[in-house]
Every structure is written in structure tokens, then in C-alpha cells.
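Hey L., structure's done. Input below.
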Amino acid sequence: MNRLLALALLFITFTTVYGQDPLNIGIKFGTNRSTMITDIDDVLNQNILYEDVNNYLVGAFARASIGRLYVQPEVYFNTKGGNIQPYGTTNDIQTNTSFNYQTIDLPVLAGIKLINRSLINFRIHGGPVFSYITTSSLITEINNFDANDLKERYMGWQIGAGIDFWFLTVDARIENSANILNDQSQFQARNRTYLISAGIKLF
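Output:
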């Protein structure tokens, strides 16, 4: 009987703390799959294959809810990039080109809870993401292109969906960036990223 009472009290506590609180703060971690999309094929008249790379992210989030509506700012460390595989007969690119750079990302998302229960909800959201490049590396055989062509910061957009169960949260999103190369570069490039993350609401 005492065990049943303890479990009931624990259930009520979780429901009250994590299910009804209009403000949540938590930590999150996840993985992403990113592709670098450029106009190198047009500029150099070179046939290009774009290859995805897998990376990781870790950070924190906050969520302020009013009924079914919510705003969710986040901050996390992320790694993005992609590989470019040339094919054809030109000599401008002899080997694979590998982009790899780390960012601090700050998405500011607005969303709606399509299912809104005390223990579970299903959400859709979207909004801008501001990215600040912290480190970058580039292995390339492309003429007139190096890591210094990357901007220090750029903007993109995220859309996605998520589900919460008690204090656990899972999200899946697509992110598209604006041009990540500076005006001095003869090329343009953007990063398309698919993100899957899990989080824990601390309160």
C-alpha cells in the first residue's frame, strides 16, 4: 500500500511539475545530417556530387507557453559541413572537398501544440536561427577557395515537429541557411541540415 501511495504521489508530482508549468528550461543533445550546396558546378562548369556528413549538437532550451502557443529560444553547439565529389574531365577539382565547421546556433522558434495533454503533447514550430562560426576547417582542391571565405555569422530558418512525454522531449527539424560565404568569394554556398534531438526538462 505504501509503495502504491508513493508511486501515486510521484505521478502527481511529475504531472504537476512537467505537464502544467508554463515555463520550461532544459538541456538537449542530438545528431544532424548536413549537406553543403554550392554554385561551384556553374562557376567552374564542373559536374558535382554533394555528399552528406553526420555530426552532433549539444545545448539548452527554454519554452514559454500560453495555452497551445509557445515560444522556444535555444542555444547549442553544432557541427556542420558536407563533402563535394567531383566527376567529369575538368582539372579544377582533383579530389574530394570536405567542409567542416563548428557553430553556436541560436534558434528562436514559435509553435503550436496540436495535442496538448498534461503528460504528452505534439508540437509543430518554425523560426529563424542565427549561427556564429567558432572554428572551421576545409580540405579542398578548388581554385580560389579556402576557409577564410566563410562568414563569421549567418542566418537560416528551421521548421519541424516535436513530442513531449513527461520531462522528456524529442524534436525533428529541417534547417536551410542563407549564403554562408562572404562577398569576396566568387562562389555561393548554403548548408541544408536535418536535425534530430532529445532533451530533458530540468524544470
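The chain has a mean pLDDT of 82. Residues 2-19 form the longest helix (18 residues).

-- N.
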